[in-house]
């Protein structure tokens, strides 16, 4: 028995540590998870009601084409219903894009520290991966453009970039899109776009009107707080979406996911509340970083990557012992930790724990 040669050394995804594991292993009662950019405020009450209303339909297959949710999204963003594809999270849309477009010998370009699933799925399809170094934590679009060849199939742009949190600006994206050849599919991952109010942040839908070779990725896992229901979507030109649809599993998203997403999309008040709380959280945390003399990348999503100046695994462990689950161990950033913006109470627990950890580590040096 032999699997595909190219997956033999592929690691299994390591998720953020679950709260229950940490409580059990460390004997703690109060644990906060600020590791996976989940919404600390849960989800819209209307989404919860929609989930409950679906309970009586569990024996019936979901609508494979998500017709009702598709119509709502098409209306909200003023696009055609044939421009949208759903996945079990945008993770699955990434998988489907790779499956539909990449094969042996194809080249695909991404940043050297970005969302892990672009590379993961490209490896599975045996494509050649070209990683372009981030510059000051930002996508270096001119350098990415310089790596485009006749063999390039997909360029992945994560905006804001996970884990650094930085954004590419409108003009930078315009420069890039106007020069990238039309045979290259550009995937713009906007998982955190609903958090962003900055005028420099590009509106993917505006770009989609002018550039055929673009696909946007959106998700209900972040500001909408529906991560466990696994639903996200891709938006592109009908011909692109059709190819992706051809490799989709017939009933990939669930009734609960579709119903909750529909209700969540309509609850703009909840989204606005989360955006405002997140803005305040960033203000508080970065203010504290400045007090502590720590540098950080400008944060646009619901997470902040900062430089601890110690090996990040030590800071991660110290935070964990105090009941704060963070995210660390990025090879490009050995002293950085990424923290999700939580509720004010969680943010305060994080900062006071961090202060203790850094003091403890400073004494050991
Ligand atoms: C969280 C995240 C996603 C995927 O989320 P799903 O839960 O699969 O929808 C995609 N891209 C980025 C950059 C993310 O941070």
Keywords for this structure?
365 residues, seven-stranded mixed β-sheet, Aspartate Aminotransferase, domain 1, 13 helices, Aspartate Aminotransferase, domain 2, 14% strand, binds pyridoxal-5'-phosphate, alpha/beta
Helix and strand topology:
Blueprint: H1 19-26, E1 32-33, H2 45-53, H3 67-77, E2 84-87, H4 90-101, E3 107-111, H5 116-124, E4 128-132, H6 141-146, E5 152-158, H7 170-179, E6 185-189, H8 204-210, E7 214-219, E8 232-236, H9 238-246, H10 255-266, H11 268-291, E9 303-307, H12 312-321, E10 324-325, E11 336-340, H13 344-364
Parallel strand pairs: 1-10, 3-4, 3-5, 5-6, 6-7
Antiparallel strand pairs: 2-8, 7-8, 9-11
Helix pairs in contact: 2-10, 3-10, 4-5, 4-9, 11-13, 12-13
Q: Output the helix-strand order.
A: HEHHEHEHEHEHEHEEHHHEHEEH
Backbone structural class:
alpha/beta
* Total number of strands: 11
Strand order of the largest sheet: 2-8-7-6-5-3-4
